[in-house]
């Protein structure tokens, strides 16, 4: 359990580095302001400035409203990162991996069922079968268990079906 949690945390670290927050001032229709590099930023199209780069803006002089936007980092825009981590790693670990695990586990369960059925059909060991009879009394259940044990003992430890086949072959 601990290795799975550690792997999950390590695998998901790059996802936290894909986006960054950017603070964008909300400007009036004809408002202008000056950034720290003395460039004039204005937004005449709508009330929210979305196309300008406000990374260098001097926020100490601005007291108006602003909004927070998420923007992709350079890591998220890197083509190799997109191909390897987002496309191939997710395909392998989240789609193909679980599918292959299901196939392997189903095959193992199927083989164990076949193996179990073969051991039931072989007469190498004495097996006691407790069957529940339709009656509800305790003595009837105890009698059915002893009858089953006695019948199997007479048939060499084989189940009823295998002894019936042997009788039909004689």
Description:
This protein has 170 residues and is mainly alpha-helical. Among the domains are: 19-72, no CATH class; 124-170, no CATH class. 52% of the residues lie in helices and 12% in strands. It has five helices and four strands. The chain has helices spanning 2-16, 74-77, 79-121, 138-154, 160-169, and strands spanning 19-25, 32-34, 40-42, 66-72. It has a two-stranded antiparallel sheet. The chain has a two-stranded antiparallel ribbon with strand order 2-3. A hairpin with a 5-residue loop joins β2 and β3 (40-42). The two termini are 58 Å apart.
Quick synopsis:
This protein has 170 residues and is mostly helical. The chain is 52% helix and 12% strand.
Q: What is the count of helical runs?
A: 5
Helix content: 40-55%
Report strand %.
5-15%
What is the quaternary state of this protein? single chain
- Provide the spatial order of strands within the biggest beta sheet: 1-4
The run of helices and strands is: HEEEEHHHH
Mean pLDDT figure: 74
Which sheet architecture does the biggest sheet show? Answer: 2 strands, antiparallel
CA-based gyration radius? 37 Å
Number of strands: 4
Q: What distance lies between the first and last C-alpha atoms, to the nearest angstrom?
A: 58 Å
Shape: elongated
Low-confidence stretches: 34-51, 140-147, 161-170
* Structural class designation: mainly alpha
